[in-house]
Amino acid sequence: MLYGQNGASDGFDFYQFQVDGTGATLAKRYSNLFTYFDFGFYYNRSNGLMYGVNGEVVDPQTGTLVGRFNLASFQFWPLCLPDLEQDVVFFLGPASWENYGPPHYILQAFDTKTYRQLGTLELPQVTGDAKNLVRWGNAGLAFNTVSDNVWATDKPGVYLIDGDFVNPHKTPDVTAGTILKTIPRLTSISPVSALVGSGAQTLTIRGTGFQPSATAYWNNNAQSTTYISDTQVQASIPPTNLSAEGTSSITVNNSSTAVAFTPQAFRVVGAGSTAIRLNLGSYDIAWDSKSAKLYAAVWSADGAYPNAVVAVDPNTGNVGPSRIGIPDPDLLRVSSDGTYVYTAQRHANTMTRLDLPGLDNPLTWPLGADAFWGPMFALDFETAPGSPNTVAVTTGDRGTEPESLGGVAIYDNDIQRTNKLCADCTNQFGVINLFDDLAWGSDDTTLYSSIIDDWGYRDDFYTMGVNTSGVDLVSRFEKFTKSYNSYIHYDSASGLIYVDDGRIFDPVTGNTVGNLGSSGYVVPDSSLGKIFVLGQTAAQSGTADYTVLSFDKGSLSQVGSITIKNLVGVPAKIVRWGASGLAIATVNNVAPIGELYIINDASFVSSASPAGIGARTVGPVRLSWTVPQRRDRASKPASRSQGMPLR
C-alpha cells in the first residue's frame, strides 16, 4: 500500500494506492483530510495511523480524522516522527515567539494513545532550519538544519540527542555532551486560594519536568523556591502578594528562557466567598442527578486532565473518576436516565459514549465525510428524552462558511438511522438547509434547530419529525433573527424555546412571546420557576467580572443577581445542578487555561421568588465577551523529565 497527498489549497486530497507488479493503482481518495499546505505526513506501522506535521492523526483505511496533538507551543508546523518502539510521537520545531522570546527550537514528546504531552526539551544551541528527524541507537534522535530560513545568521548543522527523554527504558549510547533543560508542565497547586490579607503561604506545585534549578513565579515575579523532586516544588508566597483580591498566574521554569506549560491560577478572595473553584479547562459540562456528579469535557491544554472526560463532586470539588484518551472533547451531554455520557471531539470527526458512573466501556463511531468538503464534525448534538441510546447530531465542515453543511442524523448506539436531513441541498420550502444547534421537544419524536453561524445567509428555525426511520423536515420559520452564537433551549413544562439572546419563542406558532431584556447564556428551570442568565453588565464589559441574573419564569421579572469576580478565562457553559447549584465552565487560549466555578447558594438559586418585584436590581447583562470557538480547524514516568546530552 502506498499513500500520497495533494498539499495545495485546491483540495488537500489524500490518496491510497494499491501497488503490485504492474505498478500503482488508485484505490481510495479522501478530500480535505489533512488541512495544511505542502507539508509531510508519517505512517506509524505499529498502529496503522498517519501523523501530520500539524498534529492531525488520520486512519488512512477509513479516512477518519481520529485526533490531533496540541502543537500550540510551536511557531510553525514542526517535524514529526512516530517512534515504532514506543507509543510516542516526537515533534521538533521553532518555539512560539510570544511564549519564549527569541526564536529557538524545542522538542516535544506525546503519548499516541492519550494525546497527552509527555515532556518538552529546550534546544537553545540549534541554528538553521530543521529538515530531517530520525531515530538512532537505543535512545537517540538526530536532525540536520540548513540555512534557508528568515534568520540570515543561521548556520547549518547536524545535531544528536541521546538520553531518557527519547526513551526512558533504554541505556543511552553516549553520555557526553551538553545537558539540556526540560520545560516543566504544571498539573496542580495547593492551596488554590487564600483570603485577602492572609499571612505568608507555602504553595505546593506539582507537575513534571522540574529540575534542581527550578524557580517558581507569581505573575512573572520570581519567588523563593524549594526543589523537592522532579514532580514537586514549593514556593514561599509573601503577604504582600495577598493584599488585594485578584487572580495570579503561577509558573515554574528551569532556566531563564522558558516558563512552564499550563500555568495554574491562584486566587486571592474576599471574606464570605463560598464558591468552589477548580483549575480545570473545559468547553462543556453537564449535570447527572443520578450519580450526583458534574461531568466536564477537558481539552488538551489542561495541566492535570488533558484530553479527558472527568467527573466532579460539586459539593466537595473532588475530581474522579476520569476517562483519558479522548482528544479535545468539546461537546458533552448526559442521557436523560443517567446511563451514559456522550462527547464529540474538537479535532476528530467522531463521537464517543461512556457508561456512567464509571466512565467505562467507550463506544466510538465516525460521523462521516463529504465527498468534496471532507470530514464532517459535530456542530451540536443532543441525547433523546427517554431514549438513552439515541442522539441527534448536526454536522458540518470547519473549513467552510457557513460550516453547517453536514445535515442532521439520528444515531442509535453507533448506528445511523436511514433517513438523514441533508444540508446544502434544497428542501420542500425551496431553500437550502442549514442546521447548527439542536434541541429535542418534549419527547423523542420532535426536534428543533436554528442557524448559529449564518454569516449573512439566513436565520431560519426548523421543526423536524423523528421516527424509527430517521428524521424529516416538518416546518420552517423565516427571520428567526438572533444574535451570533445564541443557542436555543427547549423547556418541556411550557413548550417554549428560550434563546440566549433573551427572547422566548413559541415553536408551534413561530411567534416571540416574551423577552428577558438581557442576553448571555440562558438556563430555564421549570422546577424552580426561574430563568438564569449569565452575562456582563455594561460596567463589566472587557473585565473578568460577570453577573448571573435570575428571572421569575411567569412574570419575567428580575428577582435576583450575584456577581462573579475575577473569573479565569471566558465562560463556555453554565448549568444547574442539585437543589441550589450553578456551575460555570471557562476556557482560556492563554494561560491559565480556565476553571470550573461551582456555586451552591440556596438564597439565590432555589429560594422562592419574592412577590411583587417588577423592577430590575442589576443589569441588564449582555454576552459581551468573545465566545470560545469550539469548531476551529486548530502522567508519564518521572524519568522522562530529566535532561539529556545534545551532541
Automatic annotation (TrEMBL):
Residues 184-266 form the IPT/TIG domain. InterPro entries: Ig-like_fold, Ig_E-set, IPT_dom. Residues 628-647 are annotated as: Disordered. Residues 638-647 have a biased composition (Polar residues). Pfam families: TIG. Gene3D superfamilies: Immunoglobulins. It comes from the Bacteria. This is IPT/TIG domain-containing protein.
